[in-house]
Amino acid sequence: MGFIALHMSILGLSLLGFVVAFYIAMKKYTKAPLICPMKSDCNTVIQSHHSEFLGMRVEYLGMAYYLFVALMHAIFVVFPVLFSPFAQFVSFTTAAIAALFSLYLISIQGLVIKQWCVWCLTSAFVSGAIIFLTHTSIVMPLPKLFGMFTKLVTVLHLFGVTIGVGAATITDIFFFRFLKDYKISEEEASLLKILSNVIWAALGILLLTGVLLFLPKSETLLASGKFLTKMTAIAVLIANGFLLNIVIQPRLARISFNEEHDHMPGELHHIRKLSFALGAISLSSWYFIFVLGALRGVVIPYIPLVASYGGILIVAVVGSQIFDRYFIRKKIF
């Protein structure tokens, strides 16, 4: 496929994605039901509290992304000389961010909401096709391209770590306040949701920038215990985050707002213990990643380092349960 055909294809896909996102936005604005071709409930998906990210509606984010991609590739079609290495870098990373976000939203539909929206899946398919064609349009090997912008990617990587550490710390503080009396206001619930979104955004930044840093120096980083341990910690954070979203948060919301649910004996106690453990894993993992980033020039093999990380997680979880028992004895809870 030639240069013009590639960028015209991406332009066409982005316009299709914009139309889908605009259609969802109009249906939500007019409060009209979405027609879902699949035997599922599209309206449950688009009306759920997961339809917002960082306080912004997902369909608006989609419209902005698709419009940006359409304008960018229209410019490349008219002025091919502007398709510089930096433009290629921006084009690919933007498409990669959208693809990761689409994967996140699909996971939420399948694992949390447990309903599928064919319009949302169409948008995800469009995002996947865009990143595939964008990759095809790059005129140099990706490792070489990313290697040209290592400093920029490193700054973004450190930014992701900083944001993640801060958001995880604040989230644990608010979560602790909630667990003291099992009461949470609408404002507190909204704030916790935004903080959770910030953490997911930070994880996405870490994951993407980690890949971008890895490709130009794959042989070196595969031998780096620090890098491999950091990727292990990120994987733990992703699994831990999904457990919080799938198991803990829905139950806490039902209890907090007195929604009907099957109440089990000792449910609140078990939720608190599990919440403390998951919170400890999250906080210790983020600070561990932060410390790893600060240890520049220090070479540590993967096995000892990941064993240390495992030990820290065990200590953190055990400490969280001791903390829980302490407050039970003090009858603070």
Specify the number of helices.
12
Gyration radius (Cα, Å) is: 22 Å
Give the uncertain stretches in residue-range form: 257-261
Apparent shape: flat
Number of strands: 2
What class do helices, strands and sheet pairing give?
Answer: mainly alpha
- Beta content comes to under 5%
Task: Tag the structure with descriptive keywords.
333 residues; mainly alpha; de novo design (two linked rop proteins); 2 domains; two-stranded antiparallel ribbon; 2 strands
Describe the structure.
The chain has twelve helices and two strands; from the N terminus they run ααββαααααααααα. The chain has 333 residues and is mainly alpha-helical. Helices cover 79% and strands 1% of the residues. It folds into two domains: 3-139, VKOR domain (de novo design (two linked rop proteins)), CATH 1.20.1440; 147-329, no CATH class. It has helices spanning 3-30, 42-46, 58-78, 85-113, 118-137, 142-147, 150-181, 186-214, 218-222, 225-256, 267-294, 302-329; strands at residues 52-53, 56-57. It is flat. Helix 1 (3-30) packs antiparallel against helix 5 (118-137).
List the helices and strands and how they pair.
Elements: H1 3-30, H2 42-46, E1 52-53, E2 56-57, H3 58-78, H4 85-113, H5 118-137, H6 142-147, H7 150-181, H8 186-214, H9 218-222, H10 225-256, H11 267-294, H12 302-329
Antiparallel strand pairs: 1-2
Helix pairs in contact: 1-3, 1-5, 4-5, 7-8, 7-11, 8-10, 10-11, 10-12, 11-12
